[in-house]
């Protein structure tokens, strides 16, 4: 998927000022940069949590969050088009966003059953398999509040995987966690990356980005200040502001 000259304003404030980004299949893209630079807004445009107001975000050649009218123009789509696109573009949020009144297993299987992707028995089997993958099989019958933040986030990851998405977006997945719970979530993400899942990750975890990302995007003030292979960005950033940022946070 890609963004081309993507812009987004909230009222008078332009938060994305023309962003070009390519996400290649099987790659891990880390989006880094100072607070307020537009990282979260950018990742949210990739599955139509926000729609761009200029340029475009494309998935399989189709604009994300829009549908084509009979007249051939694109209008914002909040309905079936977006629901269909989100089946392929999963998302994991900073605050987990689990359903509090559903069990862990139900959180994972709810959407696939509701959308008729899998029957209940198969969804259950698949859900348990995914919970096993994130190390939580024995917690399937519990409710989110009975789990630690790190465990809840791992449930959210299993939920995102349930739909067998092509891409999974992670918006600061460890920012809300106590420091001792961060590593268990990063370990699951590193494993998914090693398996070849396409991932886009907004993160402040620089060591993780350096080790796991293929491509790093440095955002500053609504623009991409610099992007390139992780190895290069972390060893010899071309942009002095990338260097300053990395010196500050590493
Ligand atoms: P980052 O993720 O890099 O911290 P954000 O994308 O969250 O940056 O925010 C970029 C800017 O857009 C900030 O100034 C923020 O206050 C503003 N912003 C983000 N979302 C909204 C919104 N829904 N309404 C108004 N302003 C917003």
Automatic annotation (TrEMBL):
Native species: Arthrobacter koreensis
Location in or out of the cell: Cell membrane
Membrane protein topology class: Peripheral membrane protein
CDD domains: ABC_HisP_GlnQ
Pfam families in the record: ABC_tran
Full protein name: Amino acid ABC transporter ATP-binding protein
Family: Belongs to the ABC transporter superfamily.
ABC transporter domain ranges (all copies): 1-246
Keywords from the UniProt entry: Amino-acid transport, ATP-binding, Cell membrane, Membrane, Nucleotide-binding, Transport
GO MF annotations in UniProt: ATP binding
Primary location group: membrane
Classification via InterPro entries: AAA+_ATPase (IPR003593), ABC_ATPase_HisP-typ (IPR030679), ABC_transporter-like_ATP-bd (IPR003439), ABC_transporter-like_CS (IPR017871), MetN_ABC_transporter-like (IPR050086), P-loop_NTPase (IPR027417)
